[in-house]
Amino acid sequence: MAIKHKEYMRWYFFPFIHWYDLVGCIPVESARIFRFLRIISVLYRLHKYQIIDFRSWAFFRFIKFYYNVLIEELSDRIVVKILTDAQDEIAKGSSLLDEIADNIISPRKTVVTQWVSSLAQHLGTSISHPEQGEVIRKHIINSVAKAVRQDDQIAMLNLVPVLGGNIEKRLQNTVSNVVIQSITNMLEDLDNDTVADIFDKGFNHLTSDEKQVNNEILKLIIEVLEVVKAHISQKRWQEHLEERDQQRKEALSESNTLF
């Protein structure tokens, strides 16, 4: 009947799913105990067709709660153990960043350089676009204007009668245009070879300061993992019990107040 009605995607699924029926058919006394497992199948079907709802049963809620407690405790301890091992490996001086550069970035250097160069060229084209680059151009113009106003020598131009303010304004516009055009040209001229050369020099010629930065990054990773461990170690099931106890106390106090 299962094959005829195509109850499962494959006909041979039935023996695996209903193995207890097949074992229960064996004419041996010890095998007949598996027939009791049909009760689970019957309950599942009754629940499936919404004849009963065993999720509302107290016994089911009890089993589900402690099952979730067990799964949460096991998963939390496993994850915390993995993160602790990762922290220990990093703290022992693991060349994590070097391995990332050598094993992940270097084999994909061609793809990465193409992506970076195309992104830079697209950004440069967007800046020169009348509409798309308006926000960036305004930011650059405001930054240049702020720098010009803070310069003492340029501020002296305001002392020049009549022409001082006009000269300062023209100077701001000229510097802003030069900066915008320089950034646009720099981004548009970044081809694959230039980006690849930057990557090679950046990864292969690290100074002592840059190595110190790498160490600080590793320490940052360790601290982040510690925060993640603390967050994972929080026992949600205890919070659930505390909330339920609080609700019971509130309900009990309300009933006492009524009576």
Account of the 3D structure:
This protein is mainly α and 259 residues long. Among the domains are: 1-52, no CATH class; 109-205, no CATH class. The chain has helices at residues 13-17, 19-24, 38-48, 58-91, 96-105, 109-128, 134-150, 152-155, 163-188, 192-204, 208-232, 236-258. α4 (58-91) packs antiparallel against α11. The two termini are 61 Å apart. The model has no long low-confidence stretch (mean pLDDT 77).
Main attributes?
single chain, 259 residues, mainly alpha, 12 helices, 75% helix, 0% strand, elongated
- Main sheet summary: none
Distance between the termini: 61 Å
Number of strands: 0
Q: Order of helices and strands, N to C?
A: HHHHHHHHHHHH
Give the CA-based shape: elongated
**How many helical elements?**
12
Radius of gyration over C-alpha positions, nearest whole angstrom: 35 Å
Mean pLDDT score, rounded?
77
Helix content: over 70%
Low-confidence stretches: none
Strand proportion, as a percent range, falls in under 5%
What structural category arises from helix and sheet content?
mainly alpha
List the helices and strands and how they pair.
Blueprint: H1 13-17, H2 19-24, H3 38-48, H4 58-91, H5 96-105, H6 109-128, H7 134-150, H8 152-155, H9 163-188, H10 192-204, H11 208-232, H12 236-258
Helix pairs in contact: 4-11, 6-9, 6-10, 7-9
Could you give a quick summary of the protein structure above?
The protein has 259 residues and is mainly alpha-helical. Helices cover 75% and strands 0% of the residues.
